[in-house]
Specification:
This protein is mostly beta strands. It is built from one helix and 14 strands. 9% of the residues lie in helices and 58% in strands.
Amino acid sequence: MKKIVIYFFAAIIAFLIGYYLNYFEYGNLGVKFEKVLEWEGRVDGLDILKVKGRKLFVEHIKDKKIVGMKYKFFKNVGKGNYFLRKDRGRGIVSVYQFPLKMNNFYLSIMLDDTDFGGDGIYKFSLFQICRKSGGENRKEEKEIFGWSGIVDKKEILEVDFNLRDVAYIHLAGSREIRGDKYFFLERFKIDKNDSIFLKKVFGRGAVDIVDIWENKVRVSIFDPYRGPSLYEFVLYVKR
């Protein structure tokens, strides 16, 4: 029942945003939506589409493989922010991973039809969210650290930019992190004028910065659900 409710609200949100994209002006927001990709196929299982540039391949996860796949690119897929509009399909169609250094700048899209019998036709449109050029001087986002791992309950990560290392604080009742991977983009020193931000790439619970000191950043991951789950996040600065 809980899963059905989540799907229901996700569908409503996707519909409202899609309606907005089709029928309303967005010039006053200083952004524009550029269509990148249209995709169609028959899905009967769980698949991940991986997209980069104008290339697309399927990572098949479960049940039957996609058949009748066809797609059309309108521009290259690269680093940036994207919005996916589901045009047809009874299951989940969502962006699974955005293009980041930690995934070699691939955009991943999840197609999940596992809760239904037989195959179904799925269609979606992918848009890139672009800022309109203006006279104001906007700060660029600079990724400085990326992490992924499997978490069960709650963990504290201490990211040390001096040692280029990560220390873990396991809280009571938590299981040890598994499959952790991380990268430091370059030698980095936190300046007093820097604002450090966190972008959660994947994870069902909360991921937050809780402290910054002496070129270290402390991050909390809280997974309140039963069983372990994959989490990914990126730290970045605006300069």
